[in-house]
Structures are given as structure tokens and as C-alpha cells.
Request: fold
Amino acid sequence: MKRRALLAGAFAAAAGSARAEAPAGEIAGVPADKTAEGVPVLTYHRLDPLASHSGTIVTTPVFAEQMAYLATNRVHVAPLRDVLPVAHGAALLGPTVAITADDGWRTVYTEMFPIIREHRFPVTLFINPPMIGHGGAYLTWPMITEMVKSGLVDVQAHTLHHPNFNTEHAKRDPASYTAFVKTEIAGCRAPITAALGLPADMLAWPFGIHNATLDAAAEEAGYIAAFALGSRPLANGDPTFALPRLQIYDTDRAPRFGWIAAGHPRQQLKKVVA
Ligand SMILES: [Zn+2]
Reply:
């Protein structure tokens, strides 16, 4: 309870222009007056100890470097749930990020967990329950349970089977598609709650694909928020069922990583970081 209270204290209540009065934090390599007010929700997928075989794989040494950067520069790493109020105008008291990892890859346990445990950084996993324990590449329920017991890891929904909703919409008739959407979205909550005793009330859209129909389905299923992708931090006014997250790459090293951690859109990188 003490940990939650401290983290909740990182935010001031939403109040008019309070955001403008929040003290700017300093991040190495990024001028203090360039720090922003949004919260980058850092998104990872697989880690690999040696090589980045595909775009979304971050190598373990780079991940360790990124986490050390956050610690050294006193960037506050908040549980994902605690940054939701920022979309409604809650003020930040300094540079803040949240960390997420999608798809339930086993390397979240073997590579990522030891590093976040060392720093005591909270991480939210978005998983597809039927994939857990399915083949050697995915996490097992005992691995997830151990991570949850550490108090650092939250587990949330990424739909049941990680569908591409655009493809499914194109190939199904309306009734079949509606039923499919409901099963994939609503049906993802119970297996997580049953296995871990967690509420599973936040959703990450597979491939970042969503639209008004899907957003409504998520709301109807009882989710309190859903995350898409994007290249910018979560900020005041962002829609509850399409909150932006930033995919982090193996090439995101300081000062590039510092620019992102400071709450800036990735698109602005070229202007500031060579
Ligand atoms: Zn995914």
C-alpha cells in the first residue's frame, strides 16, 4: 500500500493550468526547457540477449542501458494505471514514463524481469491468454505468477488471439464479426483474472488497430482504458480507448532515448538529436 501511495503522490489533481506550473525536470542531453508534459508509455515486445533480429526486438544490453538511464536521470517510472489520469488533465510533477511489454514473450521473464527488479521499476504486460505456455517462446503462468508476486508486474489484456481486426472485418459477415469482436475483447478478461486474481481492465489493441466500433466494444466489456500505438507521449485530452504508446527500438540509445523519455514525440527527434 505504501508503494501505491507514493506513486499516486507523483501526480497533482487535475486543476486548470496546474500543468504549466509543474517543475521541469532535467534529463542529460536534453535541455531542461525542452522537457514536456506528457507521459511516454514505453512499449516493448521481445528482448534478445545478443541481437535484434526484427524491428521490435530490443537487445538486453540496450534495455539495461535504457533502464539505467531512467534511474540515473531520476525519471519516475509509474505503474501504467497511475498515468491514466494524465489523459484527463492530471499534472506531472516531473519527467515520468510507464513501461509496457506486449505479447507475453518468454524473454520478458528471462531478460527483462531481472533488470526491472534491480531498479524496482513497475511494468505492465499485455498478454494473449491462450498463448501463455504455448511453445517455448512464450511465458508460462508460473513465470507470470512469480513476476506478479514481486509487486512490480501487472498483467492486462491484449485480446485472446491477437487478431488483425481489419482482416477479420473484411472476411466475415457482420454478425460473425460482431460475435468475434466480443469474444476476443470481452473474453480476454476472465482467463487473466482466473489465473492471477488481477482485474484485467486495461486493453492494448493488437497491431494498434482500433476504430469507434472496437472502442465501444472495449468500453462495453468493462475496460477502463485501451492503448493504441503512436509516436508520442500520453497527454491531456487523449481518448480513453485510444491512448498512445511509443514502441521502443534497439536503436533508441541516449540521447535519443532521453528525448523520448522526456516526453517528446518521436517525430521531433531529428530537430534536436543528431
Ligand atoms: Zn501484440
In short: Residues 1-26 have pLDDT under 50 and may be disordered. DSSP finds twelve helices and twelve strands in the chain. Residues 102-103, 158, 162, 206 surround zinc ion (CB under 6 Å). The two ends are 43 Å apart (CA to CA).
